[in-house]
């Protein structure tokens, strides 16, 4: 049975009814955030409900869109967490909310342990409005689906700098420290990215925020990506048109990032 929450109502159906002129349908004019529910509660530190709502509020204010009834949004999330461990909260320009759920990837544990292969996407597949998570997500969707012999795609800018994967933020280890692309490079300010940055700072672990040029990525010993659903996934190979770069998916430094999800 498929259940979702839409505009203040819990609905049991695999379909939704929208006006054919709804800008969310026509143009992807929505903002969304995806979270993983830990310990069956929205109030878990790792669920981080408030940070996900703050992400939505930031985009709504930036676009001058209406805010939803936040108590209603939480009510929908509370009802759906009984059915799904992962919730996607979408807000329409007029303040309507849509919350759908899904399950964790079946191969998540093996990917967290063994790592994955990525390919570099074409520069033209950069995300629209990268500082916001909008419903116009065609570019990263294409990038990931065109990565036919890999599990993820890495988005790049016109200069070839690595930005982020199609679904998460990048981390690299070299010279005894962590590196992550800066927000000014044009990446999504991920909720987990900020949580891990805070965690590293609390552990007095330095993180360099520099653009990931060709010279920098060749020097990494290990790289990984994070998001609110998969936590941390090491990357063992990055394929590009003329070759590939190998990385150590079992590098001991990765435990510094994983420790955030255990603390």
From TrEMBL:
GO terms of molecular function: transaminase activity
Range of residues in the leader sequence: none
Alphabetical keyword list: Aminotransferase, Transferase
One Gene Ontology term from the biological process aspect of the record: carboxylic acid biosynthetic process
GO cellular component: cytosol
UniProt KW Transferase keyword: yes
The UniProt record lists the keyword Zinc: no
Pfam family, one: Aminotran_4
PANTHER family for this protein: AMINO-ACID AMINOTRANSFERASE, AMINODEOXYCHORISMATE LYASE
Family the entry assigns: Belongs to the class-IV pyridoxal-phosphate-dependent aminotransferase family.
Protein's recorded name: Aminotransferase, class IV
Species of provenance: Richelia sinica FACHB-800
Lineage: Bacteria, Bacillati, Cyanobacteriota, Cyanophyceae, Nostocales
